[in-house]
Design a protein that fits this description.
Layout lengths: L21 E4 L15 H6 L1 H7 L3 E4 L3 E2 L11 E5 L6 H13 L3 E6 L3 E3 L3 H8 L11 E2 L22 E4 L4 E4 L6 E3 L5 H17 L3 E4 L41 H15 L6 E4 L5 H5 L11 E2 L3 H4 L4 H14 L7 E3 L8 H4 L4 H13 L3 E5 L19 H5 L6 H6 L44 H6 L4 H14 L1 H5 L1 E4 L9 E8 L2 E8 L5 E4 L5 E6 L15 E4 L4 E6 L1
Parallel strand pairs: 1-2, 1-15, 2-5, 5-11, 11-12, 12-13, 14-15
Antiparallel strand pairs: 3-4, 6-10, 7-9, 8-9, 16-17, 17-18, 18-22, 19-21, 20-22
Helix pairs in contact: 11-15
Bound molecules: alpha-D-glucopyranose (GLC).
């Protein structure tokens, strides 16, 4: 067992955002107050007490800006306005105030990379070659005129040519995601200034941070160098290659890493501190570049590797070690198991709630910021949808795909509807999602709602919801779990069985032991008289080491947190 620390912890100064806990709300699916089957801001306001009681400190909202909703809000039509189906600016102000009154922080989802094709800027830009907004987007001549050959071979993240032809000006415009969302041109300083000012618009209102949507796609090679072939078909969290393309000239450009530093400067104009979390892709080493050479770029980035790591202690140990090595303090790692683009982790665990509790314990006790996706705390599963009738444009795009089941084999689903279903509040019709029980919600509710819902789990001390709640509260009560250095305890022979680590803050040491097996484990106590702070078993009251010859007994798939009495 290694118990050496080479840091001078007393000099560590933690910022609020380095130790916060984040909960992601997908506004369309959280709570519908108007009875139209679509979630909204007043619905969210009505559930703030629930979130406060759960104990999450920061809430990130997927976009609720005005949008034609082709990609459910990620296609923004007005960066300063609220989509009418979600509410008004007045509702927004109320939401922010009510959150701040509860000491919660608000993070908005900011889509810098592109606008909706219906955005007035784009409509102007597309109207003629000499329109003042022409250069706000990336327009180029084709290799052959008349729309016969695009400017180069670039493809989008979702597959297919990345250029859209406009006959009126005989030019092509570039988009990285879907043709309904066109990339802004950040080589034009007017665009940059406008978008920075829009961030200031929200920061002036008191917003505490931004999640930055596909930030790695901000810049493209100016020369439009052709992309090279790659053997990779399926996108992964380790590299950006996808669908036989390398994406060397359209993703993770040096200019984009520099852009992260500029964004940080905007944030640094504000007191108290605000934060940025980037949705960026690539290996951890590549992602680190967004944090800036002196940690002066994005405050943090999503690390998606946890999502694709199977339930295997050895693999997690190796991932945690890599993260700690690549992003030592003061860099801030993040811990993500799901979001609105990814299959729900409880389904990947085949609905094994004991395993979910182990993962939740790990997520909330590692050094860094955990991101909890709405519904994760109650174990909401994926729901099946037909690709053809999918609400998600990606699902419809792939509706030709012969076997939807294959998508699970390749590691991701083709429709993101699966993880976006209405929040399950109770066992009434529509799971209490909508104030109107007769309405069909925009996505059907999971048929698990009678078994899996907030109301039911609130009453059950052994529920996943109460496990999250207890974890969030233990984290809040113990500074070592927020600010402590992380030290993995090495026990090579047993790595296949459990993970253990220490969080240490000054003289305080907190121990975390996670049993990944379906067997009981007897583990030698690292300290005398350990005091139990938390167990995934709600009825465990103490660690009775005397009864086990000074050992700690872990029941199958049990996770515990303890310190010295
Ligand atoms: C991000 C969002 C996703 C959206 C896409 C385009 O990946 O998470 O939901 O569709 O960007 O904005």
């Amino acid at each position: 067992m290694i118990l050496q620390f080479d840091f001078n912890m007393s000099e560590w100064k933690y910022k609020w955002w380095q130790k916060t806990t984040v909960y992601q709300i997908y506004p369309r699916s959280f709570k519908d107050s108007t009875g139209n089957g679509i979630g909204d801001l007043q619905g969210i306001i009505s559930k703030l007490d629930y979130l406060e009681e759960l104990g999450v400190e920061t809430i990130w909202f997927s976009p609720f800006f005005d949008s034609p909703q082709q990609d459910h809000g990620y296609d923004v039509r007005d960066f300063r306005g609220i989509a009418p189906e979600y509410g008004t600016l007045k509702d927004f102000n109320q939401l922010l105030k009510e959150m701040h009154d509860r000491n919660m922080k608000m993070v908005l989802d900011f889509v810098l990379n592109h606008t909706s094709i219906d955005h007035p800027w784009f409509i102007e830009s597309a109207s003629s070659r000499d329109n003042p907004k022409r250069n706000w987007y990336i327009w180029r001549d084709g290799k052959k005129s008349g729309g016969k050959k695009p400017p180069n071979n670039w493809t989008t993240m979702t597959g297919g040519c990345a250029w859209l032809y406009y006959e009126n000006t005989d030019q092509w415009v570039y988009f990285h995601f879907l043709p309904s969302m066109i990339d802004l041109n950040y080589r034009n300083s007017e665009v940059k200034e406008e978008m920075f000012n829009t961030m200031r618009f929200w920061l002036d209102k008191g917003v505490d941070g931004f999640r930055l949507d596909i930030l790695h796609a901000i810049y493209e090679d100016e020369q439009l160098t052709n992309d090279k072939f790659s053997w990779t078909i399926i996108p992964s969290d380790k590299k950006v290659d996808t669908l036989f393309h390398k994406h060397k000239y359209d993703l993770n450009l040096p200019e984009t890493f520099d852009f992260a530093l500029e964004l940080r400067e905007v944030m640094d104009e504000y007191e108290p501190e605000r934060f940025l979390v980037g949705e960026v892709c690539g290996s951890i080493e590549e992602i680190k570049k967004y944090y800036g050479p002196n940690n002066n770029g994005l405050h943090m980035c999503f690390l998606f590797e946890f999502v694709s790591t199977p339930f295997d202690s050895k693999k997690y140990i190796s991932l945690i070690s890599r993260i700690e090595k690549a992003l030592p303090f003061p860099f801030t790692p993040t811990f993500v198991y799901g979001n609105h683009d990814i299959d729900r982790y409880i389904s990947l665990l085949k609905n094994n709630f004991l395993k979910a509790k182990i993962l939740a314990t790990m997520q909330l006790t590692l050094r860094g910021v955990p991101f909890i996706y709405y519904g994760e705390e109650i174990g909401m599963p994926n729901v099946r949808f037909k690709l053809k009738t999918s609400e998600d444009p990606i699902g419809r795009k792939f509706s030709w795909f012969p076997m939807p089941q294959l998508s699970r084999l390749i590691g991701f689903s083709l429709t993101r509807d699966r993880c976006r279903t209405p929040m399950q509040w109770n066992n009434e019709k529509n799971a209490g999602f909508s104030s109107n029980i007769e309405i069909e919600p925009w996505l059907k509710v999971s048929d698990t709602f009678e078994k899996i819902n907030v109301e039911k789990e609130q009453k059950n001390p052994a529920s996943l919801l109460n496990c999250y709640k207890r974890l969030l509260s233990v984290r809040k009560e113990n500074i070592a779990l927020q600010e402590g250095e992380l030290q993995l305890i090495k026990h090579e022979k047993l790595e296949k069985n459990y993970i253990s680590y220490i969080r240490r803050y000054k003289a305080q040491k907190i121990f975390i032991y996670l049993n990944f097996t379906k067997k009981e484990l007897l583990i030698q106590t690292p300290i005398e008289k350990p005091e139990l702070l938390f167990s995934t078993l709600s009825n465990r009251k103490a660690l009775d080491t005397e009864a086990y010859n000074g050992n700690i007994k872990l029941t199958p798939l049990e996770g515990i947190i303890f310190n010295k009495k």
